[in-house]
Amino acid sequence: MPGNINPLAAIATLVLALPVMASPAGAAVLPGVNLAGPGFASGKLPGRFGWDYVFPRQQELDYYKAKGMKLYRLPLSWERLQPELSGELDQAYLGHVKDFVAAAKAAGGMTIIDIHNYGKYRGQLIGSDAVPPAAFIDLWSRLAHQFGSSPSVIFGLMNEPQQKSADEWAQLQQQAIDVIRKTGARNRISVSGIGWDGAHNFPQVNGDALARLHDPRNALIFEAHQYFDRDSSGTSPDCVPEDQVEGRLAPFTDWLEAHHAKGLLGEFGAGRSPQCLADLRRAMTYLYSRPANWFGWTYWSGGPIWGEYMYTLEPKKDGTERPQMGVLTDTMHAKP
C-alpha cells in the first residue's frame, strides 16, 4: 500500500510444473489487480466484518474478469487471520479467504495471498522480543497446509516489510520458504524487499540480499512496487514526466534479467491527469516489452469501498469506467 495512506481515510521464478494461466493477446505477462478490503481499519482489531473491513464481492471478480485480469492480490490482516501469535487461524476470516480463492479460480484467475503487515504484528517488528521469527514461520506453515494443494494460490510472504536490514529480512524469508517446502506445498512464492520494496532502487537496497534466497522448487517470484509521483510514495495525484517512467522500472528489470528471475510489480498506480495516464501507458508498454523478466502485475487498487480514491479502478456508481482502466486494458490487449 502506498506509504502514509489510510484506506478508510481515502473513502471520505520461474514457471514450474503447474498449470499456467493464459496470457492476454499471447503475452507472457499476467495482468492483475489488488482487491483491497480485508486489511482495512488495521487499528480496529478484530474489527467488524462488512463495516470495518470487507472481502471482495462476486461483482468485483466479474468486473475484473471481464477486463482480462488473471492475478488477484488479496491484502490480508495477519492479526485477523491469526488472532494470537503461533495460535490457530481464525476460521471465519480463513473461510472468507478460501471462498475468494475458489471464486477467483472459477473466474480463471490466481490469488496472491498477501500478508499486508509491513513486517509487523500488532505494530511490533518480526524479530523483536514481542514477535519472534518463529511466529512468522508458524504463520506460513499453517497457510501452506491450508493452500499447499491449490496451484492457483501464490504465497506473498509480506507486504513492504520495515525491517532495517535487507539481510535480516532475507533470512526471515528463507526460513518461511523452507517451512513452506517442508509441508510439501508446491505453490509459487512471492518474496519482497525492505525500503518500501521500490523497483527504482531495488538493486542497491535489496539486490544482494535477495539474490541469496534459495527455493528447491525454483518457484520464487520477486516482488517490487513502484509509483510515479515525485518521490515514488504513491501519495500524490501528480506524476513525473513520461521520460522518467522506464528509469524507475529498469533497475529492477535488469536485476531480474541478470539473475534469471521473474518479477511481479505487486503495487503501482497513477492519478487521472493526462500526465499520469501517459506515465501509466508508458509503464505498461515497458512491462510488456520485457516478458522474459516479468511474471505479472497487480495494479493498486480495486475493491468495493475506495470511493473517490485517486488510484481506484472501481467504476463509479453509474458504471462509468475509471480512465486508468482504459489505459490498462488498451495495453493488455495490444499486439506484442
UniProtKB/TrEMBL annotation:
Residues 50-301 form the Glycoside hydrolase family domain. One of its GO terms (molecular function) is hydrolase activity, hydrolyzing O-glycosyl compounds. Keywords: Glycosidase, Hydrolase, Signal. GO terms for biological process: glucan catabolic process. Residues 1-27 form the signal peptide. Pfam families: Cellulase (PF00150). It comes from the Bacteria. Belongs to the glycosyl hydrolase 5 (cellulase A) family. PANTHER family: ENDO-BETA-1,4-GLUCANASE A, GLYCOSIDE HYDROLASE FAMILY 5 DOMAIN-CONTAINING PROTEIN. This is Cellulase. It comes from Acetobacter oeni. The gene is egl.
